[in-house]
Amino acid sequence: MNAPVPAPWVRTRLRAAPAAAAALAVLVALTACLAAAVPRAVDRYEDAGLLHAVRQARPDRTTLQITAPQPDFALASDRRSAALRPGPLGQQYERLLKTVPRALPVDRAQSAYGVRTTDNLAVPDPWLPRPSGLPARVALVAQSGVGAHAAVRAGRLPRAGADVEATTAGVEAAVTAATAESLHIEVGSVIHVPAVARAPLAVRITGILAPRDPAGAYWSTQPLLRTPALMRLPTPGPDPETYWLGALLLAPEAAPALLGTRGDPVRTWFVAPDTDRLRAHELGALTSAVAALEAGPALQRARDLTDAGTEITTDLDEVFGSFARLRSGIGSLVAVAVVGAGTVAVVVLLMAGGLAADRRRTELALLRARGASLRGLAGRLCAETAVVAVPAGTLGLAAALLALPEGRTAYAVTAAVAVTATACAALPLRAALGHRTVRVTAPREDVTGLRPSRRRTVAEVTLLVLAAAAVEALRRQGTSAGRLVSAAPVSVGLIAALVLVRVYPVLLRAASRPAARLRGLVAPLSLARAGRAPSASSVLPLLALLTALTTAAFGGSVLAGVADARDRAALLTVGADARVDAASPLPTGLAERVRVLGGVRGVAAVSIAYEAKPGDGQDSVPLVGVDPGAYGELAAGTDLGPFPVRELSRAPGNGVLPALASPSVATTYGTGPFRVRLEDGGEITVRIALVRQRTPAVPGADFLVVDRTGLDAAAGRPTSLLITGGGVDAGALRAATTGAGGGGGGGVTASVRVRSEERAAYTDSPLQSGAERVYAAAVAAGAGYAVLALFLALLRAAPERTALLARLRTMGLTRAAGRRLLLLESLPQSVLAAAGGTLTGWATIRLLSPGIELTTIALPTAQPALVQAELHMNTWSLTAPAVAVVATTAGVAGVQAWWTGRRRSTTELRAGDGR
After folding, report:
1. Rounded distance, CA 549 to CA 412, Å?
2. Total-model pTM
3. Which domain holds residue 684?
């Protein structure tokens, strides 16, 4: 009879503990999914932010404009004309596209080439509009692809023969509908363009066009092609001199005719970048490509193909630079949460491996005693774990790739592989470290009894020095410290964990002595049980909790600082919850109609004269006329320069008005009486009685605020309404304002601004909003892993605690005393972690706040520097996670005691348990 074949190790072990294998698979799959999702989420919001920045810059700044002067005058006329024809220009265009570095994608559909005049020519035709008597001017453009980018609304596209020369007397052209409307051009109109040494060039309009994509680069690189402009001459005087400027679109074959005009024609090639293919991770290559085109080898190749005087201009490098600065400031902050959450996740994976090794300590010790090699044992454990972890990691990676289809795959795969490798190595490494020496029973390593070795002391001191150096470098260098920013909270958490691990035994021993003198059993027994916990098992949970609590406190303070900065900037911009402004006095009764709208709590009507001239009348200072009572209530409610109302109120019969002024105005004009000339020519005398940094009506740094009753009837009429109320309806407010202006307001045009809308506009960049979402998700994930670490720590001691409680129940311990015992035994470490986490979070914020700049993530780059976003304490994020840790520990201990109490004591005891 054949001997039975033993079952394979891996299959046997998985069948022996299916629940543990399933739990490990879920943990690895979830962690791998989150790890793979982070780089793709960052890529997605950074790509969206770059696309937003490029599109916001408009094609006139982002298109590569290649310009070559007209052919040399020394050439024969036929050769000069040939150089401007579509054939040679098209061939040069195809070659120029090949000079653009591959890193910069090109949108051929929006790119074009042609000839245009650089000097706008005044045309004498009297039927063209002349707003101030100056003749209209036109630019002549012969650009490729007009028919493909426009629909013919009237007439037809212009045509030209192959025989057009500089001496041609007339050509055909088309105009856009906007140009035709503004310049009163119709199909069949003839515009006479001045020529050189001959009769004017007659340009006959044959068609009126409607651009298919007005916002595209084809029409917006030179906006004049699409929309005419009312130009203003820089001449002094109240009545400016203006003239219309429009573009006439000639057939490409008619380009040689431009040589006969005074317009100084140039050859142009417009190369539009393909914005949909721009990627933020290629920003360095994109910047280098633009630099090569503007002043590098690509420019030299372009000159070799066209003309020695060819120039390439674009503002794309400025757009990329602005985006890079914004991304750098935001990325360093996002990395803080990602590194913190990643650290906690790694600790949880290591704890899961340690828990499995502790659970199988007897089995592994027996295998070592029977001759199993350390390498062989570690290999079998690694294979056992890999069978579960590798499919789970692959599943998590696939889920991340499906959930986030955009972004780089290599980084996602690397992150998932790192998670899977960590999970596979945790159990073998922990087992190898614990079973280096062959022995049946392991020595006790109680927290209160074990003395740290010299090696451990040296390692801890080294880590302390490195972490302290990282924190100090961050304080000195700020966000320019690079990766130190992301590691700073973890470094502080590591310092605290190492300190608390050393302090924890001292505290336990100090608490055990007075507890031993108590009459009850529960308190001294719980402290003794806490002191008998293995020393090695307390480091990882403490590090996980401290890192999570520190990251949560830091992240909550970052988000709170960003929110506060946006709220403050919106308040400074609007001055209230909403405001209505007009250049002329508002309609009578508008304030009363606004006051009865839903959500409105108060309305302060003010008059603002921006051109009031105090003193000698050289400089203008905004003069605000207010009702002191209503305005004082508004200033106090918004905390924008609150003041005593009686100090600003006008005394009856006194010709000198008390004024509230900004510090700069008070420094310039002093506190004595001085005259202020109003916009309508009137004068008042004021005396500065109050000085404040801010005031609600005017966001600037210069202002004067006086009692409106001291102004004449015309100057005192309100031009603005400052509205307070938590639920102001912007639509209803605009409807009321529009109705008032159109009905009884004499055509007054008023603008409405709402604080909530201003605040929402600060997050219009996908780079900012995406970073906030990733930041919040990372902090939440770190908190979740911290709770999981706490559960693993409690789960490790659960069997021993259950058996202890069962034994004590057989000795007469009540259920209530058992619950108290389990609770008091688990509380010391959780209370230490909560207190240490709160203290560490507070210290992290205090230490790092000088080097952290939140303005880049809080406010758009175009926003004036009204406020500086700063990192400051957030009580909720500092205390709520710590309280949650203690509450979770207490809840788990209570549930364990309740569950143990329901079961019979004999079921928890096994042979040999009572020894």
Report:
1. 27
2. 0.80
3. 571-761
